[in-house]
Specification:
There is one protein chain. The chain is mainly beta. The protein contains one helix and 15 strands; from the N terminus they run αβββββββββββββββ. The chain has one domain: Immunoglobulin-like (Sandwich), CATH 2.60.40.10.
Length: 131
């Protein structure tokens, strides 16, 4: 019985440590066209766990807070969108894979995007432009 009690806290906090979370979904577009396979990251301005998603081929996304908890912490967030994937090195020194960045730096490395996540359902459409 002691082992069960001791391990109860081994996998992170329970519901009492959770901040208020709200569902966040939306559509990601670049120059009016759906942007699929992009990594979307919402980072709370006041600190805490990020929420992330990958857009599907139609640009739709739904943020995940952690594991099977959908949504994001309520409050203001800095938002990063990227399509870049680092190529992998093979044993013989060649590189394979990788995806070039299709999103301007103002939405990733130098992001200016900020959005509020409010209680209840949040639909946040990310309408990016390449200019």
């Amino acid at each position: 019985m002691l082992a069960v009690v001791c391990c109860a806290g081994c996998w992170g906090g329970g519901p009492d440590d959770m901040p208020d979370i709200a569902p966040v979904t939306g559509t990601l577009t670049l120059d009016g066209q759906p942007l699929g396979m992009a990594h979307i990251i919402f980072t709370p301005i006041d600190g805490g766990q990020t929420s992330e998603a990958y857009s599907d081929p139609t640009g739709q996304y739904a943020l995940v807070y952690k594991r099977d908890i959908m949504g994001a912490k309520i409050g203001k967030h800095k938002v990063v969108v990227t399509t870049f994937e680092e190529p992998e090195s093979t044993d013989d020194g060649k590189t394979i894979g990788g995806v070039p960045e299709r999103v301007p730096a103002k939405y990733n490395a130098n992001t200016t995007l900020q959005f509020d996540v409010n209680s209840g359902e949040n639909v946040i459409d990310l309408q990016l432009t390449s200019k």
